[in-house]
Amino acid sequence: MKLSLILLATCIAVHAADSLPPLKKVPQNVTELWAGYDPQKEPLRTEVVREWEEDGVVVRYLRYYIGSFKGKSAWMAAFYAFPNIEGTGMTSNILQEKLLNEAGVAAISGTSFGAYGEGYLRFSYANSTVNIREAMARIRDLMAT
């Protein structure tokens, strides 16, 4: 099984009109964060910045344009990977629990982000390379059993 990881990055460039008003209040949840966003008016743009394979894992470094702020393009930023796990034969919720309880690796079921998240997990990669490699080895060992 080959995993594909998606890496999100921040990039800023000049853009004409602001589509993201300054925050008056910090959003407290996902619903508040995306309130007022209209994908028909401003569809999500993505760009593959770089793609490579490392240790049998395909890694894609992507950026997501989400609007403009103070005359500059705004790009979504995060340190997460969203591998497709459909080949495991398990639901996202079941594999999330199995990884935590049997391998000690934390992940979030894609369904935590909506119904279209089924078949995916979210992993944070805001950690050391040593710890990420250890987690990947634990996942490989678990999936081999």
Topology pattern, helix = H, strand = E = EHEEEEHEEH
Strand content: 25-35%
Mean pLDDT: 79
Helix percentage: 10-25%
Total number of helical segments? 3
> Which stretches are low in confidence, meaning pLDDT under 50 for 5 or more residues running?
4-16
Number of strands: 7
Oligomer: single chain
Tell me the structural class: alpha+beta
Taking the sheet with the most strands, its summary is: 4 strands, mixed
Rg: 17 Å
Describe the structure.
With 145 residues, the chain is of the alpha+beta class. The chain folds into 2 domains: 4-78, no CATH class; 81-144, Aspartate Aminotransferase, domain 1, CATH 3.90.1150.10. 23% of the residues lie in helices and 28% in strands. It contains 3 helices and 7 strands; from the N terminus they run βαββββαββα. It has helices spanning 30-34, 92-103, 129-144; strands at 4-8, 45-54, 57-69, 72-76, 80-81, 108-109, 121-124. Strands 1, 2, 3 and 4 form a 4-stranded mixed beta sheet that branches. The chain has a 3-stranded antiparallel beta sheet with strand order 5-7-6, with helices on one face. A hairpin with a 2-residue loop joins strand 3 (57-69) and strand 4 (72-76). It is elongated. The protein starts with a strand and ends with a helix.
Defining traits:
23% helix, 145 residues, elongated, Aspartate Aminotransferase, domain 1, alpha+beta, 3 helices, four-stranded mixed β-sheet
